[in-house]
Amino acid sequence: MARCFGLEVNVMSAKEAGDLWPLATEDLVGAVHLPKDGQRNPVDTTQALARGARGRGAKKFENIAVTDILIENGRATGVRTKDAGITAEFVVNCAGMWARELGAKTGTTVPLHAAEHFYIVTEPVPEIRKHLPVLRDGDACSHFKKGAGKRWSVGSSRSQSRGVCKGSPSVEFDTLPDDLEHIEPLLEGAIRRVPILAKTGIQLFFNGPESFTLDDRYMLGETPEVRNLFVAAGFNSIGIRSAGGAGKVLADWTVDGHPPLDLWDVDVRRVMPFQSNRRYLKDRTVEALGLLYAMHWPFRQPDTARGVRRSALHDRLLAQGACFGEAVGWERPNWFAPKGREAKYEYSYGRQNWFEHSAAEQRAVRESVGLFDQSSFAKSLRGKTPNPS
Questions:
Q1: Which of 131, 186, 238, 281 could be bridged to 113 by S-S, CB 3.0 to 4.6 A?
Q2: How many Å apart are CA 83 and CA 272, to the nearest integer?
Q3: What is the mean pLDDT of the chain?
Q4: Of 237, 239, 269, which is closest to residue 253 (Cα–Cα)?
């Protein structure tokens, strides 16, 4: 994928990886190295962009809470603060963990839910080289990067993450209680990859709430319910990586009235109102966060928040051996298992266990007759159809 984007990338042998990262254990099989992968301080980057924007006439107001979004005739016209109102041609909901609640005030759907996310900062490690690339270990669900003063920052996303309550409107930056028992398996995995961590002290343990989406992809674009109201939220861990591109396409979108390229996988219009349900969001977000470092199997179906929408034929399809997948909440029969076989996916990168059963279904439809349940197909767009002008 990196090569498709013109990035320099090297597939390395175990020895080459060990030479580049000598503090890692010797059981490596190999590695993928991006020589120009770098690090940025998000605060410094934000301030630099803000200075550049002010130099071009932008105004920046800090420490002012937005209480409402102003709407006239189905179009956003500005925001209301505690003390006054600010008019604007376009409004972008970038409220992060609070974007769901702010969107709900306008009747727009922004399904976000906060989950625990943590990292540690170690004491100085003299053995750290001056130039050490970021190390990502999928098996340990961890990443390691060099911090200030020969310290390490070790972050992780575990498969059993936990959802947390929404953030308080009065809290701009908050932490959650330490829970070493919960993250101990991750620390053990990090130590297996980089053994020197076992004798290195921890200077900072940070556990904070971070907003995640139901499919691990952020929310971007104009809301279908309110014209000129845009969303840019749910970026979580990849915000600094995606910020430049997201900002550019959002600016183009507001100026031109349409996205500059196909952004459907992150377009806010892909979500449905029912997906803002708090219980649905908590279950699905926890599952999605835990999949960040998991194997991304083809045709994988979500395990949580299932059965939200079922057609009138659901029980009869189930009786015929249907294996259901999910499509925007609908339980859709993806394939049928014959009698004596369990209707369950067995994931693989080769031909999966449903291949022959799906082929038999296609032959039956081609040579005989078939019935298609189209309940899961879209009937109409959510909200108003965008005006092409």
A1: 281
A2: 34
A3: 87
A4: 269
